[in-house]
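Aim 2, interim progress. The first record below pairs a target sequence with its structure tokens.
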Amino acid sequence: MADYDPDNIFAKILREEIPSTRVFEDEETLAFMDIMPRADGHLLVIPKTPCRNVLDATPEQLAAVMRTVQKMAHAVKTAFNADGVTIQQFNEAAGGQEVFHLHFHVLPRHEGESMRPPGSMGDFDLIAQHAEKIKSVL
């Protein structure tokens, strides 16, 4: 497995070198809005410590991230009056991973509505509104 790249986009978000729309953070994790949302309220949860993915994460990193994933899943389900929640996580390029810092996607879902296709930039004003909606239920 390759080494962790401290210049990946999520590491830069953690260092606040590039902007993000933060929703929640604690000592170990950060949750922020995805800029290419596949559903309204789509957010990401990452550890604040370096690891590429599940394959090299410590049990402590995974436990911290999963606590926040669960908290965010409840929050987006409530904030968007969703019927369910999709949680996605990818490992290595062959597994679909594009950013090599452990991250989980949390997406509120509504019965009969498909996720939007990947790769389309979202409306930043709308993303900010969605972040406020999530924060209001936390």
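The second target in this work package is listed in the same format:
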Amino acid sequence: MGFHEDIAKLQHHFKLLEREYEQWFSGALPTPPIQTRKICENIVREYNRNPPRNISEQTIFSMHQAKFSTYMEMWNRRTRLKEEGRLPTGRAERSKRVQPKPTPGEAANHDEPYRQVFDTYVAAKQRAGEATGKINYESFKNALSKQADQLRANRGLANVNFGVTVKGGKVSVVARRKKS
């Protein structure tokens, strides 16, 4: 096989490896993707031993090797957390988030959007490996409510929604204009 075929194979199997690891971390797969990982490792190992002679091919390989190494470090860390029981799996997370449905007319109906944002925020922080023990729902809800009131007053917005974003590994809550 030539260099370009090997790189295409590495790219294909790396994408497959990403999907399989995410499925394993979420609990959808029973075992980690060892076979796919070995295929990627063998290609990288081969080109480490016999690097391409062409400068452009060396650059392409270095880029793929760096990406593979970075992801392997992350997956190894997450695997360790999972084995220690500190990485929540999909089923465990879903069972924690199941909330009893409030009866009609209760004040809890007003809190529902805040509860959804709170649950999403806590889950995202846990996935990012951040501590969530000190996050209090009432404080969270009060802070969002105050922010919504300020946005309504300062920007003249009638309705405000909140969402959770992850940028650069940082989890944050963002305000959005509610579509009518």
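The chain has two domains: 3-83, 111-177. This observation will shape the mutagenesis plan for the next reporting period.
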